[in-house]
Amino acid sequence: MGSCMKFLFRLLLASLAAFSAGCATQPPTPATGSTQAASAAAAQRTPLLLVSIDAFRADYIDRGLTPTLAALAKGGVHADAMQPSFPSLTFPNHYTLVTGLYPDHHGIVNNTMFDPQLGKFSLGNRAAVSDGRWWDEGTPIWETADAHGLRTATMFWPGSEADIHGRHPDYWKPYDGQVTPDQRVDQVLAWLDLPADQRPGFLTLYFDEVDHAGHAHGPDSPEVDQALRDTDAALARLVAGLKQRGLFDRINLIVLADHGMASVPLANSVLIERLIPQGDVHTVNLGIVAGFNPKPGHDFAAIERKLEQPQQHMRCWDKTRIPARLHYGSNPRVPQLVCLADTGWRITTAKYMATHKGQISIGEHGYDNTDPRMGALFIAHGPSFQPGLRYPVFPNVDVYPLMTHLLGIPAAANDGDYDAVKDMLKPADR
Questions:
Q1: Three-class secondary structure assignment of 260-300
Q2: Where are the domains of the chain?
Q3: Which CATH number does 269-359 carry?
Q4: How confident is the model at residue 40 (pLDDT cuts 50, 70, 90)?
Q5: Annotated catalytic residue within 29, 32, 35, 90
Q6: pTM
Q7: pLDDT grade, residue 6 (50/70/90)?
Q8: Nearest Cα to 84, choosing from 340, 296, 377?
Q9: Of 75, 126, 264, 317, which is the most buried if we count CB atoms within 10 A?
Q10: The domain 2-263+369-429: what is its CATH number?
Q11: Res 425: pLDDT
Q12: Residue 123: what pLDDT?
């Protein structure tokens, strides 16, 4: 299941800390000739720092536990919510944010997926995660920035560990869940301390404690509240570090989330084997979004006809009949039959529930992206942004063209709409 795979992925990568320490930071390539001139011009641009707080639901800020975020929101742009792309899962949405493409278009269609040529992808499969062929249907913003003379750095971001179209960010770190929030902040500040010709102009920073707590304890738990406090304290460290360097008023800062979180009681489980024999299909993934492919010798059309009928606590579609508003179903990696749990439910098996006691998430995401519980945080602060502006809900594909505009680089083909978000910026910066 999605949440469990994410948990296992973190455990796996924690054991790779030594590897991370040895190869994480990639040295910049010396700039010469026209590249040197481009780098000099890029160094004059206002830097942009993109911060993700995994699973920070839009309304969490109303709990009054995050004073640093509240101050950034008051002094900048604060959206009522940012709508994630479907499915509202971690890897698909993080890659959407840096490509401006719906998951169906950039190819990371789920945290767990199957490709006829590449095989199986999952969060725990390091070979897949670092294989650029999984990611090359999209062009991440760091690739375009590098091509236009702008140094880039990622303090964890899905896709940044892979060699995509022959490029990594100039500086990057393989994910290591043992790196504390403060250490993550300190690495970003260290990159900003580099000499001007080596200093990144686009950076990312990723926090995941809120997501961990939400999965393990539910979104309304004391543990989530504590994770909010801890993450805000790390942001306070970041703000203090930027101020000490004279950068706070000279850097554009976007703080957002990939998706929200909903409560899922253990009893709220659709047991799929009660509807279809598991041996009659290839199960690609279970969880909030479940996917099934045909299995030779079995009547898959009959299975589809059955599951596409109204079901309790879930909806199922052949991929060609998924509602157009979800922008999902054309990519070959989308399973032939897709089932989506109602918010507050999961799709699983009795065997899985029995063998994973104590590990089942009681907070989940991946649901219909129009559900307010999937709404994500969005705050933007800096010299280019309007101060004190409250903004309506907007789709996360629009973040990418906003960022390319801020960096002064051309946008790759994308599904976003810069005109829909340009009013976030001061008139002189539009």
A1: CCEECCCCCEEEHHHCCCHHHEEEEECECEEEEEECCCCCH
A2: 2-263+369-429, 269-359
A3: 3.30.1360.180
A4: low
A5: 90
A6: 0.91
A7: very low
A8: 377
A9: 264
A10: 3.40.720.10
A11: 98
A12: 84
